[in-house]
Amino acid sequence: MKKNVLIPGRKKFTKNYEAAVSSFGASPVVSISENSIDAYDLLLLPGGGDIDPAFFNQKNSGSTNIDYELDKAQFRLLDLFVSAKKPIMGICKGMQMINIYFGGNIIQNMDSDKLLTHSYQNEDSYHPVFLNANALLLAKLPPSLFQMKMQVNSAHHQCIGHLGKDLTILQYCPDFVPEAIAHMHLPILGLQWHPERLLYTEANALHPFLKWFLYTVDQ
User: Fold this and answer.
1) Between the CA atoms of 51, 55, 59 and 60, what dihedral angle is there, to the nearest 10 degrees?
2) For a FRET experiment, which of 144, 178, 192, 194 has its CA 20 to 30 Å from that of 96?
3) Pairing label, strands 188-191, 88-91
């Protein structure tokens, strides 16, 4: 049976995510107005602008490209999927949203040295990430999903600050910026990097993201 993946975003910004979902034989649906999630097997929270700091009780100190109505709709759908214990994946902004939902917060603008490593500078930045093997066990994820050391792409100026409840850091950059998180009891994964932009490269043919995606959708 074909799986349905809900992508709560603005359609003009979701083409890469739709292509990634379709490549797995699943059906992507881009919508922020769904009132029922019964028809969906996975929530894919996409990257995008910054989250309104009001959602994590801070004043704006560097957040840009804020879309409050989109944030509100994404948090509403995130809540529905969490309540139903359905699989959730968050990418970049989506990972930060997961962290905020569970009570964490965001560093609104990283230090300049970290920005050089992580931010978009005419193209994605590339840097290594390391696996926290203990966290993988805590999250009860198959050990084969991640390598001990990986090269990933990123395009962000914000990062996770305080970690949300029942979340654990799966991957981190050598500068200790969290690069992947997971929930310890629910099928929820967040990636700070952009696997959907690596999807069609030869080196990415067996990328751990693909394995996770299939694992999640098959639940």
Assistant:
1) 10
2) 144
3) parallel
pLDDT in tens, 135-173: 988 888 877 778 888 888 999 999 999 999 999 999 999
Q: Per the structure block, which two tokens stand in for 183?
A: 């929930």
How far apart (Å, rounded) are the C-alpha atoms in residues 43 and 204?
Answer: 23
Please give the angle made by the CA atoms of 51, 71 and 93, to the nearest 5 degrees: 45
CATH number of 4-217: 3.40.50.880
Which one, of 126, 116, 120, 138, lies nearest residue 183 by Cα? 138
Bridge partner residues of 160 (DSSP): 106
Q: How far apart are alpha carbons 216 and 219 in whole angstroms?
A: 6
Task: List, in sequence order, every residue forming a beta bridge with 150; answer none if it has no partner.
Answer: 129
E strand map for 38-140: 42-45, 88-91, 106-107, 125-131
CB atoms within 10 A of CB 122: 4
Answering whether pTM is above 0.85, one says yes
Closest to 152 in 3D by CA, of 180, 188, 128 = 128
